[in-house]
Design goal:
Blueprint lengths: L10 E6 L4 E3 L8 E6 L2 E6 L6 E6 L4 E2 L1 H6 L6 E4 L3 E6 L1 H10 L1 H26 L7 H15 L2 H14 L6 H12 L24 H9 L21 E7 L1 H10 L19 H13 L3 H14 L5 H20 L3 H14 L6 H14 L3 H12 L6 H7 L1
Helix pairs in contact: 2-3, 4-5, 5-6, 9-10, 9-11, 10-11, 11-12, 12-13, 13-14, 14-15
Length: 395
């Protein structure tokens, strides 16, 4: 990659061809990026399952911020989809930009808040806990998880933080033993793997009116058929790069009505939320038991019908499934049945198919249509991978 000359105060505008790698996971760099045009996909691995996760960067969004400011390796690989243009900032450039633009501050706070919420949720799932308990216990359990998973660097960090904050805590002696063992190069326990126990949707009794209405109709799910069955960062083809003054470049970009993203977090913005933002709001409402509000958010996602990229497609399918669960919680089995059946018809390869089938069985059970319920539960029993849903279907 070649860059034109530029001074210390300014940003770089880089153009990439389709399929170029902006940076790889574990790269070390101080650069922060803003997507100006085109498309970028961030690929990482879920810590608890090893599953590959793809996240699409929206136009105007930052990426690479946490690792750059925190001075630690990249946590994901950034790759372009189609011809793409990005703005590249140093931490000093980023600081000047933040000081000049309140919208940027609001955007970053909201993005980081949402990311932190997802991290905490994943941590609770990994630890097998529901509600947060004592912080000292949480910290030690986190170290134990990493230790048993063989991720010793993170385990040692958690244990050392435990000893720093809770030197007289309940698990102090165990934490110290773990630290000494890791320092001595002792291997972690073997034969302990990851677990992926997805909770089933709670069953809710239907009203008499709903029960009669559902019983009189075959329902959309009734007719469904199933089958059983180290390098330099930026290597990868940047075509051109020009350096301009930070203030001029950013003023042009932020004032460009076609550059979506940087201003759409303004409180007075009329652009509306993106599917990802709606999903986060819906998830928060559902977790608080506000199913009516969560349903409203999920229905907005469904109405947008955005399925172009893998991230949008997953959010759309999740919205269909979760909207069905909201209807179940609100005692509306017919509406729930319609949405869950739509997943099976329109997205047979979706990750939500198995859960949708289980919940269809739960709906029929809730209106005393036992034979139909058993049919769907039996279908779940024969589906892979074997997980908690298989056991719930058996019971």
């Amino acid at each position: 990659m070649t860059n034109s000359a530029g001074g210390p105060s300014g940003i770089i505008t880089r153009s990439y061809k389709s399929g170029s790698i902006i940076y790889f996971e574990n790269d070390k760099s101080e650069y922060i990026y803003i997507l100006k045009a085109g498309k970028v996909v961030l690929t990482s691995l879920k810590l608890d399952t090893g599953e590959e996760v793809k996240e699409e960067v929206r136009q105007g969004e930052f990426f690479g911020v946490k690792s750059a400011l925190g001075k630690y390796p990249r946590e994901e690989t950034a790759q372009t989809i189609g011809n793409t243009m990005v703005l590249v900032l140093t931490p000093a450039d980023f600081e000047r930009l933040v000081l000049k633009n309140a919208n940027v501050v609001r955007k970053m706070l909201r993005v980081f808040s949402n990311q932190l919420r997802r991290v905490v949720k994943m941590e609770r799932s990994v630890l097998g806990e529901g509600e947060i308990v004592n912080p000292d216990s949480e910290l030690f359990k986190l170290g134990e998880y990493y230790y048993r998973a063989g991720v010793l660097k993170q385990a040692q960090y958690a244990y050392k933080r435990y000893m720093e904050y809770y030197p007289d805590g309940e698990y102090a002696s165990q934490a110290m033993q773990r630290i000494k063992g890791i320092d001595a190069g002792e291997p972690p326990p073997e034969g302990i793997g990851f677990h992926d126990d997805a909770p089933a949707s709670p069953r809710r009794a239907a009203s008499v009116d709903d029960e009669l209405t559902l019983a009189e109709s075959s329902g959309p799910a009734d007719m469904l058929d199933f089958d059983d069955d180290s390098h330099d960062e930026g290597a990868g083809g940047a075509a051109e790069s020009t350096r301009t003054a930070l203030s001029d470049e950013m003023d042009d970009f932020l004032s460009d009505p076609g550059a979506e993203g940087l201003d759409d977090f303004s409180i007075d913005s009329g652009r509306g939320d993106s599917p990802r933002e709606l999903d986060e709001a819906a998830e928060s409402s559902f977790a608080k038991g506000n199913y009516a509000l969560a349903l409203d958010y999920y229905q907005k996602i469904v109405s947008l019908n955005r399925t172009a990229g893998p991230d949008e497609k997953n959010i759309f399918e999740k919205a269909l499934f979760q909207a069905g669960r909201c209807h179940m919680e609100l005692g509306k089995p017919k509406e729930a049945l319609e949405l869950l059946s739509r997943i099976l018809r329109s997205s047979p390869g979706s990750a939500y198919v198995k859960s949708a089938i289980f919940n269809i069985g739960a709906i029929f059970e809730s209106v005393n249509q036992k034979d139909k319920a058993i049919t769907y539960y039996n279908k779940v029993l024969n589906m892979s991978p074997k997980d908690k849903l298989n056991g719930d279907a058996l019971n």
